[in-house]
Amino acid sequence: MPTKKPTISSSHSASKPTQKTIAEITGLAVTTVSRALQGDEKIAQATRLRVSKVAEEIGYVPDRAAQRLRTGKTKVVSLILDPHNEILGFGNSLITGVAHALAGTDYHLNVTPQFLGGDPIEPVEYIVRNKLADGIIFSRTRPFDERVRFLRERSFPFTTHGRTEFGYQHSYVDYDNEKFAYESVLRLMQKGRRRICIILPPNQFTFHQHLNYGYMRAIRQEGLQSYIPGGISLDSDMPEVFEWAKNIASSPEAPDGFICPGETSFLAIANGYRQAGKARGLDFDAVVKSSSQTLHQIDPHIDNISEDIQEAGVLLGTNLLKTMEHPDGPFEQTIQDPDITFPSLKSFQD
Amino acid sequence: MPTKKPTISSSHSASKPTQKTIAEITGLAVTTVSRALQGDEKIAQATRLRVSKVAEEIGYVPDRAAQRLRTGKTKVVSLILDPHNEILGFGNSLITGVAHALAGTDYHLNVTPQFLGGDPIEPVEYIVRNKLADGIIFSRTRPFDERVRFLRERSFPFTTHGRTEFGYQHSYVDYDNEKFAYESVLRLMQKGRRRICIILPPNQFTFHQHLNYGYMRAIRQEGLQSYIPGGISLDSDMPEVFEWAKNIASSPEAPDGFICPGETSFLAIANGYRQAGKARGLDFDAVVKSSSQTLHQIDPHIDNISEDIQEAGVLLGTNLLKTMEHPDGPFEQTIQDPDITFPSLKSFQD
DNA sequence: CATAGTACTTATAACGTTACAAATATCGGA
DNA sequence: TCCGATATTTGTAACGTTATAAGTACTATG
């Protein structure tokens, strides 16, 4: 007789089924059930099948708290949401992307918002201290990012959205902002623009450098005039940018080409110029980096290079999964290539 | 001698400090430490103080997995993010709001994205089945919402963003969409508009009814003409709405007033009309419900009634906390009052 | 000085899982 | 038939916490 008779004991059917319940039904030991569910090769295939069938039938789901206590693994990934991501669905796309990458694994996604004005290291420290996740994703890296240093020191798995300039490697996903800026300048020149202005992010961020390099490379190469506004950044709010644009528009040194690595700065600038009586396409042009469909849907003629944030989320998720599996590298490093497909100049004219 | 001598044992300072570590240092039993940390009045105040001082010193943090296993409480709140929330920072504001409400409590926020096209009950069932949270927040309720029914049957704490029409009470936060629609009609009438069109959400949602009631009430009361487009809803994407608006704009029955309970539908309509040669302020007017600052920043003259989504998040969070504390009610029910302050008609003219 | 009450502390067990070491069953070959 | 190897299963303990019931010491009372 290959199996002992099922021991009909008092407790199953009531309350939540556990491995113990399965053990009682199958007549196996709890250990065996555990290992069968893990797919351990050392357990007879017949047993594995029988166990998972019973598990299925009685609706067994493993207790994450118990697994976590025993194994030390949370099976959670934390995404730290930057307050600057609030604009135009950035955060949502990122979340959706990461969630997609995690779907099918047994990892859950935990979103920790970083409050405006708080030190960026805080949520990271909190997660590590309280062991709330097995891996962390965060964005807006700086060249010598404190968070990267912190996590690396503790060998805590992470992936960043954005690069750093440390001497060592780590997992990241980034957008080729240098190419974006470079190509944008060329596009504006192609349209006959000569005084090219770029709205840069605050200079502590790595992607400030990348944008700047690409921009300056093209400016120098083509012998154009550069214009980098002092008081305005990608993080300035719209009214501020609007005021600035309105003022500069009527000055003799008014730029005639804008590179906007964010949708809102474009909107503010376009409005400022319009307010000053200057029309886009006539008095100035702009290339915009958009992370949503909104702008393109408002006006498909806007020169727009899109950054696929949801894809970035997927990449961040998969890179982090790999990093958690092999904590000592090789580190997955992915650069998203800007998709440069402008409306043709001809069709734009009519 | 009131305290035993600290037992210097092998293990503290290495590895993660636990209650056991504190017990060894203070010479108390683990149970006492546990109860002291919980602030149990039965433990001498001196002891409580001493324990928390030591805990502080050695950087003790409770192990959430162990607490969860023992108590059955996850101390997690799940926010289910609807894919339709992706537009214009809605989801982010909600997250930030809930996070604010939870800050200072020992609850963590877990964001579960609901994938587009998936059954809305799925994430709810999943969370309940796997006991991933102690309470759930979700949005876009229907009059007889399956999720509400499901959770209520199992007495699982939840708060909804939006009302239902069940005979029983539950905790919710909602926006007074009826008032929004009603006041919007009046505003458009005040501007001389007579053919008023409203873009409604798909009719399975409760807030479709509320918007419709408010709208119809004002339309009838003032003897205006109503226009509810058939093929278009608040969830239609921009190009679709744009096409529709462009077509209707040049027909004899073209509405001259629009109520847009979402920013993107306004943008699409305004573009469609413009494309058809019709100008806002001249040929038509619109009242928009905005959940971000973007629109207002683009043009402060747009008649705009704002819905404070972050506040909604805070309310949802606090309501849920109360519900979890008192699972049998009374249920916190909050209606957000639309802030109706239009630019004055005079100043709009110049 | 015994007694009851009060103030405070503690041992034990348990939550559900898995790692480890050990036991048992099965099989092929001598 | 016995032996060793292989296949499979199992008992025990532990992860860190808290609920329960029980303990001890001290204080007030008569």
UniProtKB/TrEMBL annotation, chains A, B:
Pfam families named among the record's database cross-references: LacI
Q: Which Gene3D superfamilies match?
A: 3.40.50.2300, lambda repressor-like DNA-binding domains (1.10.260.40)
Asked if the keyword Transcription belongs to this entry, the reply reads: yes
Key words, A-Z: DNA-binding, Transcription, Transcription regulation
Q: Keyword Cell cycle: yes or no?
A: no
Report the residue ranges that make up the HTH lacI-type domain in this protein: 17-71
Molecular function terms, GO-annotated: DNA-binding transcription factor activity; transcription cis-regulatory region binding
- Return the CDD domains for the record: HTH_LacI (cd01392), PBP1_RafR-like (cd20009)
| Record PROSITE patterns | HTH_LACI_2
| Coiled-coil annotated spans | none
Q: What SUPFAM superfamilies does its record include?
A: lambda repressor-like DNA-binding domains (SSF47413), Periplasmic binding protein-like I (SSF53822)
Name used for this protein in its record: Transcriptional regulator, LacI family
* Species for this entry: Pseudovibrio denitrificans
